[in-house]
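Dear H.,

Thanks for agreeing to be a second pair of eyes. The structure we're designing against is below in token form, covering all 381 positions.
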């Protein structure tokens, strides 16, 4: 059967622009590309704990057997959600199959027709996709620019009588690695009685004494309408959770289609989440080592006068702007040939001219590896 020509043409455009995506092959390079910030995905202690937990509780099921509203709401769900809610100082927690599902489910169902969603222009694709499915109107504000946000809020208040406004942002942005001024943002949200929604995908395991995330680190959890935590990064497993009031949880169970119409996570997957959280509580060394490595990385790039290339970041994501798909791919390939797994981020994933190398720092990276990586990068410029 012939492939549709209009789809073939789109692929050809990607090839021409040097932006065609290919699935990478597994490698044994030094990891500076994964989101496994504190090494939990490779933790034998967590792996063994999950196995032992399932044996101790005589859980031998391979799957959930159905959606949570039909047959898939196994006992591990409530136990894990209660634990997560307590850990994050939230009234309730609702598990989703992925961060994508959580954001799409929330933003497609919670904001209603006549409501307004104001979102940071660099918000993740999952947030944008959820917003597109919503019946609410939406407008983006300039990245971390709260004057622009207030301008949009003031206009909405003028145009609409008592509008319901949702503000969407991330505590750590996935491509830039930077953080908004959350104290200022919560003040703006409170000033105008808005509902603030924060995706903490890249903050879990990175910020806070126990890796609770940036919001709890700043003691702002009571000022946030909803927090979305995803487990494929710092927690090293899979799934996501929406934190908020018990009323929000009930609403999502009834109206979030990505929750209602999907098979639940397997008992093994949920046990991995629960054991991951247990490990966060007791393994503070990995979090501390990660922070030391982030500081060290920034010291080295400053010492080599490379810091003007980098977006300012205190997170595990450090991005160097190298404009042009061809150039950034070439440097990434050279780094990989020298043993470092660093990925190029191409347009259209980021705007044209903002192509970059995205360096992900981990607790298991040694200072020698970090120094060698940056020295190699410097030599390729």
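And this is the sequence the design step returned. I haven't edited it by hand at all.
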């Amino acid at each position: 059967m012939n492939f549709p020509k209009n789809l073939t043409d789109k692929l050809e455009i990607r090839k021409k622009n040097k932006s065609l995506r290919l699935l990478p092959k597994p490698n044994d390079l030094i990891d500076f590309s994964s989101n496994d910030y504190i090494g939990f995905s490779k933790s034998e202690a967590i792996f063994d704990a999950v196995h032992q937990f399932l044996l101790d509780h005589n859980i031998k099921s391979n799957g959930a057997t159905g959606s949570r509203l039909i047959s898939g709401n196994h006992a591990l769900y409530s136990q894990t959600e209660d634990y997560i809610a307590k850990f994050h100082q939230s009234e309730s927690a609702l598990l989703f199959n992925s961060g994508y599902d959580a954001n799409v489910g929330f933003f497609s169902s919670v904001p209603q027709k006549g409501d307004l969603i104001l979102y940071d222009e660099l918000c993740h694709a999952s947030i944008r996709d959820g917003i597109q499915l919503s019946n609410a109107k939406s407008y983006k504000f300039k990245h971390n620019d709260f004057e622009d946000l207030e301008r949009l809020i003031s206009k909405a208040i003028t145009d609409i009588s008592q509008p319901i406004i949702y503000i969407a942002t991330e505590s750590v942005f996935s491509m830039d690695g930077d953080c908004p001024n959350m104290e200022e943002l919560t003040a703006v949200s409170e000033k105008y009685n808005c509902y603030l929604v924060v995706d903490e995908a890249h903050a879990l395991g990175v910020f806070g004494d126990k890796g609770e995330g940036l919001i709890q680190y700043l003691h702002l959890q009571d000022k946030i309408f909803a927090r979305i935590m995803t487990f494929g990064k710092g927690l090293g497993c899979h799934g996501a959770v929406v934190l908020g009031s018990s009323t929000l949880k009930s609403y999502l169970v009834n109206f979030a289609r990505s929750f209602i119409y999907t098979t639940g996570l397997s008992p093994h997957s949920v046990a991995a989440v629960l054991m991951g959280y247990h490990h966060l509580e007791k393994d503070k060394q990995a979090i501390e080592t990660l922070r030391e490595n982030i500081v060290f990385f920034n010291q080295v790039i400053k010492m080599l006068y490379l810091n003007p290339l980098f977006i300012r970041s205190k997170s595990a994501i450090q991005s160097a702007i190298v404009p042009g798909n061809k150039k950034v791919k070439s440097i990434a390939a050279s780094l990989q040939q020298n043993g470092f797994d660093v990925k190029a981020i191409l347009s259209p994933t980021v705007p044209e001219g903002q192509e970059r190398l995205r360096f992900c720092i981990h607790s298991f990276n040694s200072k020698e590896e970090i120094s060698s990586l940056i020295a190699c990068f410097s030599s390729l410029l």
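Two observations from my side: Residues 98 and 239 are 4 Å apart (CA to CA). The mean pLDDT is 96.

Warmly,
E.
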